[in-house]
Amino acid sequence: MRQPVGMLSYRKMTVDEIRELIQLASETGIAELEVQRGDSRVRIRRAAFAPQEIVLAPPAYAAPAPAQPVALAPAAPASPPEPKERDKAADPGLTLVKSPIVGTFYECPSPGSPPFVRLGEKVQPGKVLCIIESMKLMNEIECETSGIVESRLVMNGQPVEYGEALFAIRTV
Amino acid sequence: MPSVPFKKILIANRGEIAVRVIQACKELGIHTVAVYSEADRYSSHVRYADQAICIGPAKSARSYLDVSAIISAAEITNVDAIHPGYGFLSENAGFAEVCETSGIRFIGPQPGVIRLMGVKEQARAFMREMGVPVLPGSPGVLASPEEALLLAEEIGYPVILKASAGGGGRGMRVVHEAKDLPALFAQAQQEAGAAFSSADVYLEKFIAAPRHIEFRFWPTIRATSRSWASASAAFSGATRS
Question: What is the pLDDT along chain B (241 residues), one digit of tens a residue?
Fold first, then answer.
């Protein structure tokens, strides 16, 4: 979640700073990095992780980006949310459990209690995997396939949007 | 109270409507949250806002018209208020009420006002009461075609039959002659009943070439009923002169 920065730091980013960020991104091996300062926002995404769908999408910038080697849009538009499941989705043996609603993800029925499922656990259709809280209502999300819970893709207490991948289940 | 009452708002609309609201927010220094259905993932309002939340599938009944999806999106993004734009939930009194009970300001009329204006023959009655001139017509809902015939005779043709709960041009019939009235009355009632689950119709003088004059009120949040009263007084004075 992007937060506003103080008025004092409202100045443009320099090309050198952007270069530094690119270096940082490749050194650390992270998939994507977004930095905002004042009206400047820069997003660096490493090609290996760039999903094809995004590459093909028209750059629907409302404001024209200045002619700079790295896209540095003034009052930069929000990135279209890229579901984090992309790299997982390529694996045909994995089924993603996606959130059917907008809300807050909880891994356990109440604070302090054990999670509904653990990594490596075998699950069957109908097994409750988590809770998505929406408007104070706790909605239990059930598994629709059988398999082994390979990964949990969101943190406990994290807000999730519609269609966001929550778990990856390996079908056996 | 600061000059801009909100730090961050959610725009419960899409496309050009949402872009215009976001633009205004940028000028005022308000942070924006866009919502979108899966069909609008690459829409310009999604890119233009500071933050964007997917609220549902392409069907608007399950996204832009889904009250709980929008309120949830507002809750997880910690906005102060929701701007409904126009269309979608903007004239939905129930939605305005849910916003209120969820502690999120609805940028628009109070639920009671939306409800009052949604029932057209009540809106007419209220305007008359406030001294705002309205077209000659039935004082309330018409009980029968006979009552409509009597009134139309008095007002003079052409007249228009309108659905009390109407919107989008449905449940309306223009009547040019008395002999057509009974059949058109039945049609208007039927259409109104089917579209708005209320077969109530009323009648008013039909204006063939109207001029649309719009008065916009921009009350601050502190505005009182007194400002409305003086505004409406000015309004009625303006139209009478």
Answer: 446 689 999 999 999 999 999 999 999 999 999 999 999 999 999 999 999 999 999 999 999 999 999 999 999 999 999 999 998 999 999 999 999 999 999 999 999 999 998 888 899 999 999 999 999 999 999 999 999 999 999 999 999 999 998 877 888 999 999 999 999 999 999 999 988 888 999 999 999 998 888 777 766 655 555 555 555 544 444 433 2
Q: Is A4 on the interface with B (CB under 8 A)?
A: yes
Tell me the pTM.
0.67
Compute the nearest-CA separation of A61 from chain B (Å): 7
Q: Find residue A105's DSSP bridge partners.
A: A132
* Contacts B76 to A, Cβ<8 Å: 102-104, 159-160
CB contact under 8 A, B76 and A163: no
Question: Does the beta-carbon distance from A1 to B77 stay under 8 Å?
Answer: yes
Residues of B in contact with A162 (CB under 8 A): 38, 53-57, 63, 69
